[in-house]
């Protein structure tokens, strides 16, 4: 799903150290205007999407998740710092998933940290057809594209292309159908990591404005994530620990 890696949220910032620990606040705000490199990356990603092949008949993927928009509040130690949104569209026999994530931490009128991620996925018969995305991670830029070709995937990260001839799984986990153990590729940064999944049973959680029954799935290995899915397999909640010990949650609105 492209969740931000569990590493320090705040990098060194030239603000008086006697003031910062007392007055640091988290808030969701408007994104800053795109820089020239960001505009160029966006153009390349959009071109990759336009070049995607399409085909015959629609398929059912993810039950409810394939029909309705999914919106999550992003929380850091219980405070809202952003939003994660997925929109679904049937198009020329494929399922198109548009994803957008924004996180921001500010002090007074100064932005201390900003994270933005946008991508478009296309799925056919449960298989990834293509993916094109851009990430701004507090100064670091990533552009990732994946296109399925005859017998292999072509994956490009920041201009470096490689062929992947093994089965390819990405960490886009909006539906339980997308769960996959083994080697996962990050949709945000292009990194790869190995994980295993354990089903921990059904629990009652708070999501979508009330109490809901959800199946708890634990991802462990090189990345640790707790995921909760509803009865129809749609994602309801994500939780993980940051590098500084803070708790991050994505809670379905």
Mean pLDDT across the residues is: 77
What's the end-to-end separation, in Å?
16 Å
Estimate the global geometry from the Cα principal axes: globular
Helical fraction = under 10%
Q: How many DSSP helices? A: 2
Q: Would you list the SSEs in sequence order as H and E? A: HEHEEEEEEEEEEEEEE
Number of domains: 1
> Strand content of the residues, in percent?
over 45%
- Structural class by SSE content: mainly beta
The main β sheet shows up as: 15 strands, antiparallel
Low-confidence stretches: 5-66
Radius of gyration: 18 Å
Total beta-strand segments = 15
Can you describe this structure?
By secondary structure, the protein is mostly beta strands. The chain has one domain (32-252). The protein is built from two helices and 15 strands. The chain has helices spanning 20-23, 36-50; strands at 25-26, 70-76, 79-91, 94-107, 110-124, 127-137, 140-149, 152-157, 160-164, 182-185, 192-207, 210-221, 225-229, 235-241, 247-252. It has a 15-stranded antiparallel beta sheet that branches. The chain is globular and about 45 Å long. The relative contact order is 0.19. The model is unreliable at 5-66 (pLDDT under 50).
Task: Please provide a brief summary of the model.
With 253 residues, the protein is mainly beta. The chain has helices spanning 20-23, 36-50, and strands at 25-26, 70-76, 79-91, 94-107, 110-124, 127-137, 140-149, 152-157, 160-164, 182-185, 192-207, 210-221, 225-229, 235-241, 247-252. It is built from 2 helices and 15 strands.
Relevant terms:
253 residues, mainly beta, 15 strands
